[in-house]
Each structure stands twice: as structure tokens, then as C-alpha cells.
């Protein structure tokens, strides 16, 4: 008699991505879009990393909960992630905050964003739910984390970064025993606990949780009826499980995916202008810590149909060229000098302009003789001829957003305000 081959755990799991946050520290970059919908890496959006991890891990059932200014995100998901086929028992559901429980409450917290959709999750008959944040850059095999969850018999398994103790005060951290069981969860402690095998390091929460769905379902129903709860995983549900159940830490280093050229355990929160600029510019390095060229773990996204990038003019003072840069499809470098920069789809740099350490989002047009350095330019901005940014921070700050690290953010409304002043 033929025995039935066991299913991979990922085939019995659903990835539930929380993608409703604004990301206010990104300032004007999130005025029109949620943080997970912000562009990254030349052609992707931030949310593509969590979704690609799930897809590459073998998960074919996904849901994305949206709330803040979700149109850009929903449009991207419809265009770039519509290849799932229900007849193959696979899907990606978009779950906007739609007052599922009553006519008064939108999503009240991260746990409530799951609780309001219990009946939808029930309909897909999954055994495990992986709750993910949709706003971090990393590559991770969730199957490995699922296997640890099942083997340990945990009520919740929490993905954790290993960070130096002196840096851990900015995170929610885990105090664990020698077996990896979480003894206590501490939110941004002044004196973070060390790890049993490394007293100089601490485990910090990644906001990734694995649950048995039946267990989480009951917990969510209980939490929903608690008037004193903020209905949040980090504030309410996780501390309760640590105290009354079994919470186990999963180290990111055990499941992170990296090619031979990548640094170990690459993870970035690109939640500030400085962090966003640096993570993008780092991709132009000779051997970047994040390898986007690894075809064994691709970052799936919506790929626009564009012509190849073009470089034109070859005069001494008018030569279209790019050095140590990433230039996407549809870009035209027309007699412009581009160095250590990342240009998204359809950027046009006109003659005699100079770009140094510039992150230009899609369809930016840079006028002649413009000189830009250490700049992030929002989508579709028209940079006027002769604009100089990056040489005089005080002057730049009069018109643009200058970060603590000296990076200048330029949006079209800022350019319009500058033009109106002349």
C-alpha cells in the first residue's frame, strides 16, 4: 500500500501581511502612499520582500491587510501579484479596513487587523498563520521557522534579530532561556538582557509571528471582547502568551537566505529618510550586502514593459555615463554624469546635469545643468534647469526636507513652492 507523502508545512500555512501603516518617519514619501508601497531597489516596493519570501518558501495562500492611503499599494498588488490561481488552491487576498465587525471601528491594532477577518481565514482551512510586517527589507525562508514552531510545540514562535546589547534599547527584546523559550518580553528596555550563549547580544523582535490558527483564533476572540486591550500583538497578545503559555524565539540567522556574496543576516528597517537613502545607495556597491541578482530567491514585483536604458552623447563636457550605479529600464542618460546613484524606471537625466549619490524614484525628469548630491527624489518630480542641491544645507532646508544625516528629500510640491517664490 502506497503511503501518503507528507505535505510541506508551508502548504498548510497562510502568510498574513500587515501593511496598513503610514511610516510617518519617511515624511513626504508617505504623504500619498503607505510605507509598504514605497519604492525600493530600482523596480520593487518594500512589501515585495515579505511577499517574495512567502512565495519562495512555498506558501501559496496570502492576505494583505491595508488601511492608510492604500490605493497605491492595492494597485501594485493587483498589477504585480495577480498570478495566483484559485483552481490550484492558491490566492492573495487584499483586506482593506472595511468595518467587518461593526460600523464604527476600522483596524484598531495589529491583532484587530487579523481578528476582523477571522471568517475569511477560516474559509481557507489553514493550520498555521504567519503574521508578517510588510515594511522591512530581508530574505527569509519561513518553512524553517514553521518547522521549529511545530517541533517545539510553541503557542507562538517569534522571529528575532541578534543585535548588540548597546543598540537593543530601540527594540522590543526577548529574554530567553538556554532552550530558546521566551521568559519575558521587554519593550525598549534601558538595560537589555544578554543571550545565554552571547551575553553581549540581545534578541530583538522582527514582528514576525507563527501561530497554530486554532490557538490564535481563540486568543483573538478573547482579545476582541476585552475593553482594556489595545488589540495589538506586541502590546497585548505576545506578553500574555509569554506569561501564560509557551513563546519560543526563532533566530533570523537560522533561516535568512543569502547568496555567497551577501553579508550574514541582512535585515533593514528603511523607516527614515536616511535609512531609506542608504539602503538604496548601498545596492550600488561592488559587492552589496543585499544581493538582488540571486535568481534562486527572486524578489517578485510588478515589471513594467519598458525599453532598455539608453546613454547618449559623447562630447568632452556632455557625455552620458553612469559609474557604480543602478539604472533601470526606460531611463535616458542624455549627456549627464551619474555616480553612485540608483535610478528607478523611466528617469531622464538631461545634458550637463550631475547626479551623485541620488535615489530617483520612477519617472523623475532632471533638467539641464542641475547638480544633485545626497538626494532622494519622489516619483514624477520635474527638477528645473540649473537646480543645485547638496552643496549648501541651509539653503536646501529653505525649500526641501533635509534629514538629520544630511540627505535632501525633494517632492513636486516643494519644487512648485520654490518656483512660485521666484
From TrEMBL:
GO terms for molecular function: ATP binding; glucose-1-phosphate adenylyltransferase activity. Pathway: Glycan biosynthesis; glycogen biosynthesis. Residues 307-410 form the Glucose-1-phosphate adenylyltransferase/Bifunctional protein GlmU-like C-terminal hexapeptide domain. InterPro entries: ADP-Glc_PPase (IPR011831), ADP_Glu_pyroP_CS (IPR005836), GlgC_bac (IPR023049), GlmU/GlgC-like_hexapep (IPR056818), NTP_transferase_dom (IPR005835), Nucleotide-diphossugar_trans (IPR029044), Trimer_LpxA-like_sf (IPR011004). Residues 16-284 form the Nucleotidyl transferase domain. It comes from the Bacteria. Its EC number is 2.7.7.27. Alpha-D-glucose 1-phosphate binds at residues 107, 172, 187-188, 205. Keywords: ATP-binding, Carbohydrate metabolism, Glycogen biosynthesis, Glycogen metabolism, Nucleotide-binding, Nucleotidyltransferase, Transferase. The record marks 67, 106 as: Could play a key role in the communication between the regulatory and the substrate sites. It catalyses: alpha-D-glucose 1-phosphate + ATP + H(+) = ADP-alpha-D-glucose + diphosphate. PROSITE patterns: ADP_GLC_PYROPHOSPH_1 (PS00808), ADP_GLC_PYROPHOSPH_2 (PS00809), ADP_GLC_PYROPHOSPH_3 (PS00810). SUPFAM superfamilies: Nucleotide-diphospho-sugar transferases (SSF53448), Trimeric LpxA-like enzymes (SSF51161). One of its GO terms (biological process) is glycogen biosynthetic process. Belongs to the bacterial/plant glucose-1-phosphate adenylyltransferase family. Homotetramer. Involved in the biosynthesis of ADP-glucose, a building block required for the elongation reactions to produce glycogen. Catalyzes the reaction between ATP and alpha-D-glucose 1-phosphate (G1P) to produce pyrophosphate and ADP-Glc. This is Glucose-1-phosphate adenylyltransferase. It comes from Paracoccus aurantiacus. The gene is glgC.
